[in-house]
Amino acid sequence: MIKKNSETELKVYSIQKEDEDSTKNLFKNEYFRGAFFEYTVNKRDSCKKINIINQLSPKTKIYVFSNKITDELVSLLEYRKINKIILMPLSYQDVKQVITELSDSKNIDVDPTVIKLRRLIINQQFKKTYSELLAICSKLKDQISSENISDELDKIGQLILKSDENSKKLKFFSDFDLDLLEHKSSDPIIEFFIFELMDIFYQNKLIQKKPIFVDVFKYINQNIESDLYLSNVASQSNISASYLSREISNEFGFSFNKYIQVKKVEDAKKKFYFDGEKVIDVSFKLSFSEPSYFSKIFKKIQGETPIQYKKSILLDKEKAGSKK
User: Fold this and answer.
1) Of 133, 148, 230, 144, which Cα lies nearest the Cα of 191?
2) Global pTM value
């Protein structure tokens, strides 16, 4: 437990071995700015003490240390029973951030953006989550520093994909390691990451219901630069086109063709950002018949033309470079 005795002093007390009555008496008589629990030790006892603290001292910030993110912890976080889950082993940055929060005279609330993202992904269709992608990423960029972007995104990924065993087979996190530290502008990186994250989640959600879709998504993911039609993807996956169309629509909220277009546009954005490729080259690389048609689809999905998008990321990189 941490108690602030003065403007500069933080005192630490341990109640890990205290019983429930002792915990109640402690919080009836004193106010603590922070409480810490190692969730790997006596989980049931920790949950009871967390409930006691919430009842007797609702302004106390509760931090849970754990070696993995569990359903129980996520539930506690969603219902604001705890303020933060910190994965072990602890880093210097983790400790520094906690001390900074508890030393601040203001009572800092936990930003609900990541929890909102998780709720959207779990409870809504792909289409709904995608429609809010830019707004969510805009909020996340204010919380994630470019110097620590890889670790922060990894934690978000673990929270979203924690119960998704199939995601491990896709080796998502290692595949996404795109020399992040060389790209100091975090905005597009966050957006690319969150899109990949939600795409994997929804793909695996359908795979868990219909295992035959393992082949469908494997073919789509490996051939996204190809000309993907409903009929040829269905044929390659040995299922009917009508069945494929229906299941994609039910799970993703998009038609098959629209889903492929969205994935192609997101892939195009990466090519523009990381490789600086020309619009005409990207359009043909992604198997669009004409650059004008590619631009039309891009604007319909992204809200701006490829040229406008390229200009925006150049400005973004210039701003990021000026901050170095």
Assistant:
1) 133
2) 0.66
